[in-house]
Design brief:
Elements: H1 2-30, H2 48-67, H3 73-98, H4 102-126, H5 128-132, H6 135-154
Length: 155
């Protein structure tokens, strides 16, 4: 029973952060985002919610796997880096959509990408599957970085 509650908590943390940052996203999409220039490879708006929900769920699963692993310095570092990347993930939506600042968001997403890479490295050291589950996340953020840069360039 205790493991089930921890698993639910590990899922709830990134999903809740995603939900909160979704507020900034919806606010921006309904206002300025619909009127700015976007590159031809910009996905339709409906694709973002299911992709991000899946990625946040994968974060939660990886967090649970790492949390359940024996205590070590690598586990401690992995959990700290997880928190940092989740905070940067949260901030990006506000910078880009709420504050309407693709340039500042572009700078920030570079730090987010680097923190995801570090998280994957530490997760793999703790439990390889936890790190491998984050590969779709870094791929998506790589694409989002390119998209962010293109939007910044076009506007």
């Amino acid at each position: 029973m205790k493991k089930a509650l921890i698993f639910i908590l590990c899922l709830a943390i990134p999903l809740a952060i995603g939900g909160l940052s979704g507020f900034a996203t919806v606010t921006g999409i309904d206002s300025w985002y619909s009127s700015i220039n976007k590159p031809s490879f910009n996905p339709p708006n409906w694709i973002f919610a299911p992709v991000w929900t899946t990625l946040y769920a994968l974060m939660g699963v990886s967090l649970f796997i790492v949390w359940q692993s024996p205590a070590s310095q690598f586990r401690t570092n992995a959990l700290i880096i997880f928190g940092i990347q989740l905070f940067l993930n949260f901030c990006w939506s506000f910078l880009f959509f709420y504050f309407e600042s693709p340039g500042l968001a572009l700078v920030e997403i570079v730090f987010l990408w680097a923190s995801i890479l570090m998280m994957i490295f530490y997760f793999i050291k703790v439990k390889p599957i936890a790190g491998y589950l984050q590969i779709p996340y870094i791929i998506w953020v790589s694409f989002a970085s390119i998209l962010n840069a293109a939007i910044w360039h076009l506007n």
